[in-house]
Amino acid sequence: MTNQPFALDRKTMTAPAMWVFAVAASALPVVLLGSIPATYASTGVLAVPLVFLLVGAVVGFLSVGYTEMSRQAPHPAVYYAAVAKGLGKSTGVAAGFIALLAYNGIQTSLYGLLGAQLSDTFGGKWWVGALIVAVLIAAFGSSGITRSTVVLSLVLAVSVLVVVMFVIAAVQNPALPGNYNPDGFSTAGLTGGIGGAAAYVLASLMGFEAGASFSEEARTPRGPGRSVSVALLVLVVVYAVVAWAVGVAVGPGQVTTGLPDPMDAFDLQYGPLMPPFVTMVLIFAIITSMLALHSIAARYGFGMAREGVLPRWVGSTGRGARTGAPVGGSLLQSGIAVVVIVVFAVLDLDPLASLFAWFSTVGALGLMTLLILTSISAMRYLREGGPAQASGWKRVIAPGLGVAGGLVVLVLMVVNADALLGSAPGSSVPLIIPAVVVACAIAGLFWAGYLRSSRPEVWEQIGQGQGNRHAVPAARLADIEL
């Protein structure tokens, strides 16, 4: 059976599989070994575990509007379609542009982190390893989703094991005997750079929303929403516990005075062979996070291109063994990543201080902006034209609380951008990063205006989704001879 070029594979993604993509995108070992120690060291906040719970609650409120709109407007490019449905097509296109910037930014930033880690571990230039992995990501991203799911599941299972082993090591060997970091969940520990801590924590949680991008490939309509809710809950709880364990292992007096190294706890509890093993798990976790984010970015490109907002070739899908894979979107994302790696290599810019810091901050700001826009869209759509059965909790209360809290967190992120970036006082980079997000949104609005005036057939299709649902057979039916 021959497939048409603009349909994703059907009924291939279960709710657990979508959950795997969401949690893998967050990269548990990266947060354990990098984000949480950096949050303690750069902000001086002792109650980082409590910050995870507080920011997690805000994101939880925002996720209510996001998941409800993903059900009302199932689409690979969720933010684009959800915002278009509630706030209009022009705003939807602007949201789509921000989403492409954000997901490509975060995914590409990880090439800097991975390249630096590979260089430290094995030697050589950072960009050599980054380019090799870019080829591997492109190969997996343009193939069927099943193969990627298996790889992500295996690495995630080992990552969870490493996290559990760290918590056990911390509890078994507290830095101060009998002191189990009581300030971790106490408001008394909310001193120092709270804004910077909130920014770090939010960046660590990004990726939880990934499951909704697989709505057209889901086996059940409720699967994407459930995967989003469960992924967020798991990430918030796990990271709060891990942050508490870091405080236990290092000690409340030292955790904010230097850069805590969780590797010391592994070495103390399990011996000298454990840190090298954890380092390898870290490398594979970064790679699978990149693959998960690549898959999301590819689906955003596919979803917008299918409706004519992006060039049509970006919406092409594979044939044969790659049936239903977003090949065009995958090639676009891989091309962006390779160009960025080459440019940073030629300019001899630091992969961590420049590529990773700049691009990940752009991505985190963009995604927070999109969560807020989607909640505003949900309030308007569900109140004016949505299903009558939507409860007041979904229509007003949760999105409203999310928008209020989200705006506070977004302002804190912008004000404390220098903490996320690690930039020197007086640097213009913290001002440029938010400006890039704003410029991207403005470009989207201008492009939407062009489509409305010059390409009305495209304008009418914006945010509609679904395409030809019968172009690709369901995976369970693919082997049946007709």
From TrEMBL:
GO molecular function terms listed in the Swiss-Prot or TrEMBL record: transmembrane transporter activity
Compartment(s) of residence: Membrane
InterPro entries: AA-permease/SLC12A_dom (IPR004841), APC_superfamily (IPR050367)
Predominant location category: membrane
Domain Amino acid permease/ SLC12A: 25-420
Keyword Membrane on entry: yes
Keywords: Membrane, Transmembrane, Transmembrane helix
Residues passing through the membrane, by range: 20-40, 46-66, 87-106, 126-143, 150-172, 184-208, 228-250, 277-302, 323-347, 353-376, 396-417, 429-451
PANTHER family: AMINO ACID PERMEASE, AMINO ACID TRANSPORTER-RELATED
Membrane topology: Multi-pass membrane protein
GO CC list: plasma membrane
Name this protein carries in UniProt: Amino acid permease
Domain of life: Bacteria
